[in-house]
Amino acid sequence: MTDNSQTETHLTAPPAPAEVPAPAAVTAPSPSLEEQLAAAKKEAAASYDRYARAVADLENYRKRTLREKDELRQFAATGVMEDVIPILDNLGLGLAAARTQSEVNSVVDGVGLVLEQFKTTLARHGLKEVNPAGQKFDPNFHECISHQANPDTAEEHVMKVVRPGYTLNGRLLRPASVIVSSGPAPETKA
After folding, report:
1. pTM above 0.85, yes or no
2. What radius of gyration do the chain's Cα atoms show?
């Protein structure tokens, strides 16, 4: 007798799943002309709305920048004015002292100090004095109001500054009014 106590095991592959049929392609009817027209009108309305909003935003931006520019122009000198106020105070004090002083030299010294304070304050804000005494005449920064013969000053050099000029951050505000030397006086024949 054969011992068939061992159970035979057969390895079999699991059964293949049953194929699921693909859903039937649903054919949507193409939109009608009325539906296409309605969609186009809706899209055009949305585009016009975006356009109108963009135009309004641009107009608001333009108005805001004009307003900010005007405010900047009005209050741009605030820093300078805050620095000039102490000078006004000192001038007032100097004037009050001048009315009580009998000595002119102390008044002159006080006014000189206030003038130096004023020049220093303006220089901190970019104002530079153009005082070209002894320099070669430069028509870009100097205004010649007269030519005079002078043996001590070279020809076409500034002999005398009548009124100093000023630049603000490198830009000429006012040229210096000067008298220019025409060199030594020509000899006269007798």
Report:
1. no
2. 46
